[in-house]
UniProtKB/TrEMBL annotation:
It comes from Neobacillus vireti LMG 21834. Residues 40-156 form the NERD domain. This is Nerd domain-containing protein.
Length: 318
């Protein structure tokens, strides 16, 4: 794949916050609901890898979760497929229930457990992303080529119902097991080579260079303060906080689990939750240790970027 399927940083931040909030914190239920929704989305996108792996690598460039700026705003594509004849935008949904695509105003509802909710029409979502991508490519002086779009249902416990008279929308919908067949149909209708190898390389480079990950401040999102975050090294075995550093080993006072490296996750939690840089002093405060030498050893043994002299050094994740 030109851009691999990886969990968004937002999911990592949800997990870090979940591990560092007291059990009875009032935002915990909201946090867990958001986390489950995002994880479901990611798992749905990840499940497509099995189907996409059946396609020839030499023909298609596949990008997962591309986020690009168009004017003042950003747009995000779950999967973008690119070949010499066309591009294909995939909008992936992983929800349980019955999708109902209505004629009236192109409305879509999802029914589950006798509850019906109106949701964004995923076909229109895919279409809008395709339109935005076309404008973005024009802005970057790329050759024009057909851009198709599909809504892909990745959940086996979901069904799709089309209102009579709205059958035309079926050409833009498939279940994940029918994705390869849909791609094959699109390829059979688009055989004219428009993009040569040089142009494909140019577009690939443009997409990867301009991809802008979401900046998600989780403390601001939940209106939390730094003192809401539990500090210390967490036990990888029982999740107890904080572990004690005794003669070069982290020891859990609750289950007696021992680790030489438990501090690594704690430092990455700091990057995810507190701020994207850390100093020796901040490490000592967050890990509950006193020795600057030990803090330096921890930081220097991790794969971190840094700036400044030894005394005033600031560390960053790569």
């Amino acid at each position: 794949m030109a851009k691999e399927c990886e969990p968004p940083e937002r999911i990592k931040k949800y997990e870090a916050l979940d591990s560092r909030l007291r059990e009875n914190h009032p935002i915990r239920p909201i946090l867990l609901t958001e986390y489950k929704n995002w994880m479901a989305g990611y798992k749905g996108e990840k499940s497509l890898i099995f189907h996409l792996s059946m396609l020839p690598d030499s023909k298609y460039l596949i990008f997962h979760n591309i986020r690009l700026q168009l004017g003042k705003y950003y747009f995000q594509i779950d999967y973008l497929m690119l070949c010499s004849a066309f591009a294909l935008v995939l909008e992936v949904k992983n929800r349980i229930g019955e999708y109902h695509f209505e004629n009236y105003l192109n409305q879509t509802t999802l029914k589950f457990n006798d509850k019906v909710e109106r949701i964004k029409n995923p076909v229109l979502q895919a279409r809008v992303q395709a339109i935005k991508l076309k404008k973005w490519l024009q802005k970057h002086n790329c050759s024009e080529f057909p851009i198709h779009y599909l809504f892909v249902n990745s959940n086996e416990r979901a069904s799709i119902r089309i209102e009579p008279g709205n059958e035309r929308i079926l050409r833009y919908i498939c279940n994940s097991e029918g994705l390869i067949e849909k791609i094959t149909q699109i390829a059979n209708y688009n055989k004219t080579v428009i993009l040569d190898t040089k142009e494909l390389r140019k577009i690939k480079r443009l997409l990867l260079t301009n991809h802008t990950p979401e900046k998600f401040d989780i403390l601001e999102h939940f209106k939390l303060l730094l003192h809401d975050i539990l500090t210390g090294v967490q036990c990888p075995e029982c999740r107890f906080l904080p572990m004690e550093y005794i003669y070069g080993t982290w020891v859990c006072a609750k289950c007696n689990y021992k680790s030489k490296t438990a501090h690594i996750q704690a430092i990455y939690d700091y990057f995810l939750l507190c701020k994207p840089s850390i100093t020796n002093s901040e490490v000592r405060q967050f890990l509950h240790i006193e020795s600057p030498r030990v803090a330096h050893k921890f930081l220097s043994h991790m794969d971190l970027a840094f700036s400044g002299t030894f005394k005033d050094r600031i560390y960053f994740p790569k």
